[in-house]
Amino acid sequence: MKNLYSENAFTGLEAAIVLIAFVVVAAVFSYVVLGAGFFTSQTAQSTVHTGVSQASSSLQEVGNVYGIANTDDSALSYVNVTLALTAGGTPIDLSSMVVSYTDNNGGHEANLTYMGIAGDGSTTCPTGGGVAEWCIAQKINNVTAGAMLDNNAQMVILVAMPTTATPNTQFSINFQPSVGAVLPITRTIPGGLTKVQPLY
User: What is the pTM of this model?
Assistant: First the structure.
């Protein structure tokens, strides 16, 4: 009896199955490669956005830094520094800012205590020396409530000075916002103190 089935048909079917398997494997491999490429580009994009955010959220000093001597002329009681955002900066919450102090007399405070905003009914800004505290003494042209520093606005920061802030002392106050670069302010206390003096 004659065989009705041809082996050639089975060979063609096997070749088609192998071809389909290769196409599926190639498709999966290309999907994995494209996915890895998309992930890498998203990571790079996220890094760029973070860098731009860090660079555009920096503080700058506006005007003079004033030293105030409340009681006598033996040491400064506190300093007033006016802060604003750099051009194009994004708003910064100053309540989460870290303020540190160092001078060449051995005075050092790594993290002064934030006392709040003067005039809000619950905050008393420090007025005497020797305490490691700071507060927002005044808000100028600021629309947002709280300690959020807006564009085109300024905030006067009052930083209490330690007892080592005596005449002829060089000190540095660092303002480290939660996002952005540190703003260091270095000044020298003059040899003779008055009630109010600009510091250079």
Answer: 0.70
